[in-house]
Amino acid sequence: MKRNKLEIIRDILKIIQENHSISPTPLLRKSNLSSSRFKGYYLELLDKDFIKETYGKSKKITLAEKGSKYLERYSTIINFIDEFEL
Q1: What does residue 55 show for φ and ψ, rounded to 5 degrees?
Q2: What pLDDT is recorded for position 54?
Q3: Minimal CA–CA distance to 64: which of 9, 26, 25?
Q4: Cβ neighbours, 10 Å, residue 74
Q5: What is the pLDDT of residues 58-85, one digit of tens each?
Q6: pLDDT confidence tier of residue 86, bands split at 50, 70 and 90
Q7: What's this model's pTM, rounded to 2 decimal places?
Q8: CA-CA distance, 81 to 52, in Å (whole number)?
Q9: Class of the 5-83 domain?
Q10: pLDDT tens, 9-51?
């Protein structure tokens, strides 16, 4: 079954949340997207402040507050849909 845009965003954000911080390449692999599609989502999430890049020895991606709120609200909506069997 194909994922829609909201599901893909949720999946990317959940991967980052579960890892606390992650490098771009492992995030690409775990997101199960082509590199071109991943790049589009990645840049959009970065541009909209859902994620942050941090630099140390290597570039790491972390979840921003807006990304955390997205995951909370997404979960609320899914629970509502499931509860009412919509």
Answers
A1: -125, 130
A2: 95
A3: 9
A4: 16
A5: 999 999 999 999 999 999 999 999 999 9
A6: confident
A7: 0.93
A8: 30
A9: mainly alpha
A10: 999 999 999 999 999 999 999 999 999 999 999 999 999 999 9
Angle, in degrees to the nearest 10, between helices 24-31 and 5-19: 130
**Residues 25, 17: Cα–Cα separation, whole Å:** 16
Per-residue pLDDT, 65: 98
Strands 59-63 and 51-55 come out as: antiparallel
**Unique residue bearing structure tokens 């921003």:** 64
Radius of gyration of the chain, Cα coordinates, nearest whole angstrom: 13
Domain boundaries, the chain: 5-83
The residue written with tokens 């995951």 in the block is 71
Q: Helix/strand/coil (H, E, C) string of the chain?
A: CCCCHHHHHHHHHHHHHHHCCECHHHHHHHHCCCHHHHHHHHHHHHHCCCEEEEECCCEEEEECHHHHHHHHHHHHHHHHHHHCCC
